[in-house]
Amino acid sequence: MRAFLLSTVALAGLTAGAVAADLPSRRAPVPYVAVPVFTWTGFYLGVNVGGGVARYNTINSNAAIAGVVGAGVPGNIRTTGSGFTGGGQVGYNYQIGSFVVGIEADAAYTGFGRTRTVGFAGLNYQVRDNLGYLGTVRGRVGYAFDRLMVYGTGGFAYGDLFGRENIFTPGGAFVGGGARSTTATGWAAGGGLEYAIPTDSFLNFLNFFSTSAVTIKAEYLHYDLGDTRYGVFSGPVNVFNARVRTDGDIGRIGVNYKF
């Protein structure tokens, strides 16, 4: 009888353990944490610095009085100015799959001035050209490899152009001159790379505004501002006309703060 009772108790214990093992667990499931996926969609603003060149081709035409300025005038006087550029930009991106489209406006100081003197027919022709600032409004189309984007860009460009041409005798006496300062318009196109800094990167110290993301970029632009014109006078007489064609290139790096 004792052996029977012990066997019954043992069997009951085993059966209860098996039933308990089959019951659903009352522990809460481990929560699923989605890995955040970076998106380029959003507004941004930033700053940029770099360098560049401006090429000026002054074309003189319509010589009126050869006796005033000598036997004709130099047909072309080419100058190239180079220097520092720095400014800011604002824009918006929208990401569709891996493709990113957007628009950006920027404006930057450009210290691309240059003075050149050319001797011709017994007189000295001194030309001064300067691009004081350059601005653009451009579309951007890019392809994103997660946090790295490769893009092309193009659109409208404008800049503050100053042109002057003075005529002197070999002894330095002023014979005549003319000048013009104007806002010229044209186009700009180029491309670049942009990279969104991960939040755990050592470069994240740049995010002192605590925005949703900080990106760094390297960009190249070619610009063409077309022609500007002015007259060169000796006293009241329009001796000839000057036409200045301006184009150039800029390379720069920048930081954007994305919202």
Q: How does this structure look, described?
A:
The chain is built from 2 helices and 9 strands; from the N terminus they run H-E-H-E-E-E-E-E-E-E-E. The protein starts with a helix and ends with a strand. It has helices at residues 2-22, 66-69; strands spanning 42-61, 76-96, 99-110, 114-120, 123-145, 148-168, 174-196, 213-234, 237-258. The relative contact order is 0.20. The chain is elongated. It is 10% helix and 66% strand. The longest helix has 21 residues, at 2-22. It is mainly β and 259 residues long. The protein has a single domain, classed as Porin (Beta Barrel). An 8-stranded antiparallel barrel has the order 1-2-3-5-6-7-8-9. Residues 65-70 have low confidence and may be disordered.
Shape: elongated
Rg from alpha-carbon coordinates: 35 Å
Count of DSSP-assigned helices:
2
How many strand units?
Answer: 9
Global mean pLDDT: 85
**Distance between the amino and carboxyl termini:** 82 Å
The main β sheet shows up as: 8 strands, antiparallel, barrel
Topology:
Elements: H1 2-22, E1 42-61, H2 66-69, E2 76-96, E3 99-110, E4 114-120, E5 123-145, E6 148-168, E7 174-196, E8 213-234, E9 237-258
Antiparallel strand pairs: 1-2, 1-9, 2-3, 3-5, 4-5, 5-6, 6-7, 7-8, 8-9
Descriptive key words:
2 helices; mainly beta; eight-stranded antiparallel barrel; Porin; 259 residues; 9 strands
